[in-house]
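Suppose a colleague, Dr. K., hands you the sequence of a protein chain of 133 amino acids and asks what its three-dimensional shape might be. Before reaching for any lab equipment, you can write down a predicted structure in token form. Begin with the sequence itself:
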Amino acid sequence: MSDLQVTQLDHVSVIITDVQRSRRFYRDVLGLKEIPKPRTFDFVVLWFDLGNMHVHLLLKDKPDLISPRHFALRVKDAAKARAYFQERGVPTAETTPIDEADRFFISDPDGNRIEIIQWLQPYGPHAQADSLA
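The predicted structure, expressed as tokens, is then:
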């Protein structure tokens, strides 16, 4: 056994270009709880608490290039989440299905991709045969 024992994802960092617009999206649309950044930080960053991890929003001059990069938020009911975002004018995009999961993508105001996922059954190697590349 290795001395390194990773236990969970700690945080993700996302590039933003407008603090107030992004604060409204992450706080008001996604419903995340904003928390104070470390007092030693002398740059613009917003921190949001998700219980056992954080999302950090880093202010930059221009958005990150659009790519397949993303982070995923687990939800209890993906169908209700789709309706929630659509009611608020946030486009949803379907993606490649995963057995035992319901998932889709949204984008924040800077085009950062966010996966919304509901696991219908726990993910495990038994569910995905011969998928190691």
